[in-house]
């Protein structure tokens, strides 16, 4: 695959002030067909955010979602979020100072009713749910265990994903100075937690990891990167959780990239990066790692690259060395059905090599968009510039009805 130095496009605010999220890092992101959602995050000095924002990918506009009763999670830094049907599920997280108050609660934001619900708390007060809990343990012949109704411990920086049959996967994370390798799945049909304990054969040889990325593909969940107190996880071998056998398996990858010595190279180990999946490819962007310098001191190295992993042949290729202009980490990314990656926020360094939180939105098509998408984007852009971007114009131009959700912000 041809490598490019082309950067992502940065969406700059128009002269007319538009609502948008503040600069932040450590937020979480989820998306559906037409919208991207971000929740929470952190900015210096010690400021945490509990706001939820929706970004319309067609109109390129932000909308702050209501929280009239102030019910959003208090622990809103390095939490995790997935979208199931019309509900956002947020798990875990911490507040500031970091690790002083961690969470193991599962929250729900109903996009129809536009309000938060402490889902974990609601379950504890539901008598029918309590009666169904028998805390049984399933012991397999190999020694693996499935422990029902065992909740995760309070933590942050965990990996989270949702399977096609609506099970929420949560792995690892940190308590602050300790890392956990626990794996839980929450079933949205039975409303029960299951913790998985592994034998020596089917477990992972690691202490867990912080700020890795989890991607679902068919009957596996792939874990990318992250770090613990010993090391950063590499990308030549990918740890995967088999959703059928409920066991960990290693997937060995290859690389198409050669260094100057004609040796194959892979993405450098990192954490706080972002990953998205489109078709049979996974895209890895940005991140950071700590490296040793003279005198035994450490410094942070920021990554500014984009790698692609072909799931068909398990091969890595680097497609960009200058994705964002400057390296960034603790950002989030999502990809639309049209194949456009959107990255928001994170941390970069200014010219004085000091960390700064970002507010920019970076986008890039990784596939050629459809004629329908190009036409819609062109029309929206011109109407916005002419000040005629409204419902009446939509009716006057007689757009097909299936464009209406893009226009109004409905799902």
TrEMBL record:
InterPro entries: Kelch-typ_b-propeller, KLHDC10. One of its GO terms (biological process) is positive regulation of stress-activated MAPK cascade. Coiled coil: none annotated. Keywords: Kelch repeat, Repeat. It holds the Pfam family Kelch_KLHDC2_KLHL20_DRC7. This is Kelch domain-containing protein 10. The lineage of its organism: Eukaryota, Metazoa, Cnidaria, Hydrozoa, Hydroidolina.
């Amino acid at each position: 695959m041809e490598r490019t130095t082309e950067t992502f496009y940065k969406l700059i605010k128009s002269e007319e002030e538009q609502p948008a999220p503040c600069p932040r890092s450590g937020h979480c992101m989820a998306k559906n067909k037409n919208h991207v959602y971000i929740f929470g995050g952190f900015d210096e000095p010690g400021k945490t955010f509990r706001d939820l924002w929706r970004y319309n990918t067609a109109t390129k506009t932000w909308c702050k979602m209501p929280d009239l009763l102030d019910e959003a999670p208090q622990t809103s830094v390095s939490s995790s979020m997935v979208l199931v049907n019309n509900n956002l599920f947020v798990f875990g997280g911490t507040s500031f100072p970091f690790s002083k108050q961690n969470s193991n609660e599962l929250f729900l934001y109903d996009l129809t009713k536009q309000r938060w619900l402490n889902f974990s708390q609601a379950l504890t007060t539901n008598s029918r749910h309590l009666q169904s809990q028998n805390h049984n343990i399933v012991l397999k012949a190999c020694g693996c265990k499935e422990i029902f109704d065992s909740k995760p411990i309070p933590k942050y920086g965990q990996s989270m994903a949702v399977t096609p049959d609506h099970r929420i996967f949560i792995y690892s994370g940190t308590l602050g100075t300790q890392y956990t390798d626990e794996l839980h799945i929450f079933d949205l049909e039975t409303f029960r937690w299951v913790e998985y304990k592994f034998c020596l054969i089917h477990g992972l040889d690691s202490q867990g990891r912080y700020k890795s990325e989890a991607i679902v593909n068919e009957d596996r969940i792939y874990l990318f990167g992250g770090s613990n107190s010993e090391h950063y996880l590499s990308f030549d071998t990918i740890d995967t959780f088999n959703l059928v056998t409920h066991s960990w398996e290693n997937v060995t990858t290859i690389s198409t990239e050669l260094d100057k010595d004609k040796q194959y190279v892979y993405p450098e180990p990192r954490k706080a990066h972002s990953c998205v999946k489109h078709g049979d490819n996974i895209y890895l962007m940005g991140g950071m790692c700590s490296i040793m310098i003279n005198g035994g001191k450490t410094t942070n190295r920021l990554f500014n690259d984009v790698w692609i992993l072909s799931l068909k042949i398990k091969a890595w290729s680097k497609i960009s060395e200058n994705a964002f202009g400057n390296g960034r980490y603790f950002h989030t990314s999502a990809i639309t059905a049209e194949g456009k990656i959107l990255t928001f926020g994170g941390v970069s360094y200014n010219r004085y090599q000091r960390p700064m939180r970002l507010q920019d939105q970076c986008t890039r098509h990784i596939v050629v968009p459809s004629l329908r998408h190009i036409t819609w984007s062109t029309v929206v852009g011109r109407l916005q510039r002419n000040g005629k971007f409204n419902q009446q114009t939509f009716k006057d131009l007689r757009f097909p009805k299936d464009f209406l959700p893009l226009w109004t912000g409905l799902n």
